[in-house]
Each structure stands twice: as C-alpha cells, then as structure tokens.
Amino acid sequence: MFARGGTEALGFEHASPRPAPDSAVSASRSILLLGGTGFLGGHARRALLAAGHRVSVLARGTGPADGAERITADRADRESLARVIDGRRFDLTVDFLAWDAGDVECLFGAPRAALGRYILISSGQVYLVTDGAKPPYREADSDRPLMPEPPPGTFDHAQWRYGIGKRRAEAAALALLETHAVRATILRLPIVQGEGDGTLRLWAYLERMLDGGAILLPAGGEQPMGHLHAGDLARALVCLVHEPARSTVLNLAPRETLPLRELLERIAHAAGVSPRFVAASWDEMRRAGLSPACSPFAGRWSSVLDPARSALELGSAASPISGYLPSVVRWHLEHRPQRSHPGYAERPRELTLAAALTSTARSQFKTNN
To answer: Structure pTM?
Structure first.
C-alpha cells in the first residue's frame, strides 16, 4: 500500500525498499495542493496532515479543509493565482487540476512564488489517445503516434480531448526543469475508486443493480479492469514528500486486474444484491442506440497500466480490490447521490436490448435441444 518495504511480495526479488526516514528527514514540510478539496485531493490532504505536514489547499470552492490552510483562487486566472501565492514558499506542490499546458504555465508564471518540487496527477488516458499501444501500458508507450481525432461532439471526442490535454500538461511539466529549474514528477493513474468519489461511475452500476433490471455486459464482460484505491495515491504522495522518485513518469496502478463481470459480481456481493447479467456485443449495443456511457468502466477509454516501475521505486504494492471494495460500496450506499450517472438516461433502451437478447438466447437453446 505504498508504505516502505514489502517488495518480496511483489515478485521483484532484487527490489530494494526505501529505508525508513530518520527524525531529521521526517521533519514537517510545507505542501501546496491544487484541488485539495475534491475526491483525490481530499484523500491526499488528510494523509499529508496525518503525517504531520503543513498543508495549504488552493481551490475555487469552499470544500472541507480539515485543518489545512485554505487559499481561494481560480487557478485558470493568472492574476488571481499570482496574487494569492505571491511570496509564498512551498517544499512540494501537488497538482490535481492541470487539464492542459496552460494550467501548468499559469501556475509557474507567478514571479515570486517558490513552489518546490512539482507532482502532476495525470491519467492513463495519455496512452489511450495513441495509435496501436497494447495494455498493460508502460510509461514509454505514451511516445507512440497519436490516433486520428474522433468526430467532434461525440463521446469519443470528449475522451480524446481529455487525454490530449493531459499530454500537453505533462509536456509543460517536463519543460519546467529547463525554464524554472523545477524537478517534476508525473503520476499516471487508471480509474480510481474510493470513499468520497463524486464521478458516479461506480454508482452507475449500483443504481442499475438496485432497480432490479438486467445489467448489460459489453463484450461479454471480459475486458480486464485495473482500478486504484484513492488511499494508495495518498500514501504514495506521503512517501514522495521526502524522497523524490528516480523516474520522471510513473504509472501508479495495481498489478491485480479483474474482468468487468467479476468486478461487478464483487460489487453486487458487497451491496447484498443478485443482479442478472446479459452479455452484449458493442455492435448490438450501438444498433440499440446505446453509447459507451451506459457502462462507464468498459470500452476503449478504460486503461490498464503496468505498475512495475512504481512498484520498484516506491517499494510496495497497491491495495488488493478485496481489501477496499466493500468499504467503497458501503460508502456509496450510505451517501446516495441526488442525481444519476448521465448514462442512466439510456436505461430503458438497455432493458429492451437485454430482454431481446435473453429471448433470442432462449429460442436458440430450445432449437439446439
């Protein structure tokens, strides 16, 4: 769980765990979190505060701070941002809100702010916009040529635009060494699960399970999933406060992968429900007028990352899904959102297709027997 040690369990016989910090090294550090009131930033904020660090949170809104200093600003407003961090000094800056190169350039355009080492929270989406890369994606796979731009206004185009923006943000972060003599580290993440998740992606499946109808399994539910728990990201950041990673780019991800069907079965078990699953091809779903949004964990925009490099450098493994999934499901059931995942609007068409596929399967069974 990104604590030091324990590399033997990973299967890396020659990996060397980081030594435990001595009292001098473990002194409190001043840390700036951009976006530290949201889902991922909240987990990081609480872990860094618990480790004894001085945490400042920069955000537009009024989310929880838990004892961290609150700095209110719009990070996209260059003048506003420069004003609130003018003259400030931080040992480390962690950026959860860099969506494109301009966000990084705006931050480091503040002339009298000392931001220390810089950690950019990026995404496995940077691999998914390339042409021909195969999972599990290694860090070097992001250097492959880009895929053609999907048609504007489509679901695929929105996902492509996000991945392209993250690539540009990464390039801006890597240029900081030359322009500002800043050491940057990029952490690429897969889908992240955790308490406090407001993306509604896990809720998208729970809501379907709770309504009692069948749940479609795109491509039969065989697509592998590799999700990270938000607490593992937080622990990795605590680890990186004192000891920078040797590599500039790291995939922060679990080694464990599960097919979509097994993941949903585990979610159902944790929720105490027994849904009926119906396999469907992507072509069948498209002909029924369904978009990939009806199954947010599935499809080409769900990345599986190779974590070998981060496992070696950080000295431990991500949490197994069996250790955190029941708690995450319980949190979602106890904090039911007031709105549905956008893909739930397609639920009537899903149920119609599931009924048709089930009827066809029954007819074929009778014919064959």
So the answer is: 0.90
**Chain segment 249-259, per-residue pLDDT in tens:** 999 999 999 99
pLDDT number for residue 8 = 28
3-state SS track over the chain:
CCCCCCHHHHCCCCCCCCCCCCCCCCCCCEEEEECCCCHHHHHHHHHHHHCCCEEEEEECCCCCCCCCEEEECCCCCHHHHHHHHCCCECCEEEECCCCCHHHHHHHCCCCCCECCEEEEEEECHHHHCECCCCCCECHHHHHCCECCCCCCCCHHHHHHHHHHHHHHHHHHHHCHHHHHCCCEEEEEECCEECCCCCCCHHHHHHHHHHHCCCEEEEHHHCCEECCEEHHHHHHHHHHHHHCCCCCCEEECCCCCCEEHHHHHHHHHHHHCCCCCEEEECHHHHHHCCCCHHHCCCCCCCCCCECCHHHHHHHCCCCCCHHHHHHHHHHHHHHCCCCCCCHHHHHHHHHHHHHHHHHHHHHHHHHHHC
pLDDT beyond 60 at 17: no
Q: What's the pLDDT tens digit per position in 69-97?
A: 999 998 888 888 999 999 999 999 999 99
